[in-house]
Amino acid sequence: MAKSKLVKCDSCGLTIDVPQRGDEAFRLFRCPNCSHKLRADFDPQPEDSSGTIYGGGRATNRQQKRPDSEGTVYAAKKNVRTCMLKCGGKTYSLHNGRNIIGRKASVSDTDVQIETADKHMSRQHATIKVTRVADGSMRTLISCNKDRLTTIVNGQSLAVGDEVVLTSGVSVVLGQTSLLYVEE
Asked: What value, to the nearest 5°, has the Cα angle with vertex 8 and ends 141 and 5?
């Protein structure tokens, strides 16, 4: 009989029943409500930490079971953070996983489309990888997608293959457009 897990999106709060397919140990998927990337783990867990994982992460000592939803594990709310880019009074949310950042275009499938008239910013200019750590904090890395593109982080120019850790308050320049990376 196929197992299923309840996974609560840490971005919008929607609870999703995720069925196991075959013998898969986990499944990566997007929240149908907000498109946040999530993970459902199906592998056996010890009796004291069985159940669904909030946001798809593994249970740690900073997570707790809620008695009103049997078997569901939630990250301690005070430790769950979000990250975003700010530009020209607009805020662009970053999701867990890989985010392709670029200039807004109707034919682009870029994850984060920055509204700018800057022709020096490509439609797929840079990649920001967000990894949520078990305590709710994040590790965020930025890299440039092509050699000819200008990507500057706190005054440091990036070449293809370079990855720089972003911390809250760091300035990022893509082409000639200035952005601010913020964690809340």
From this structure: 110
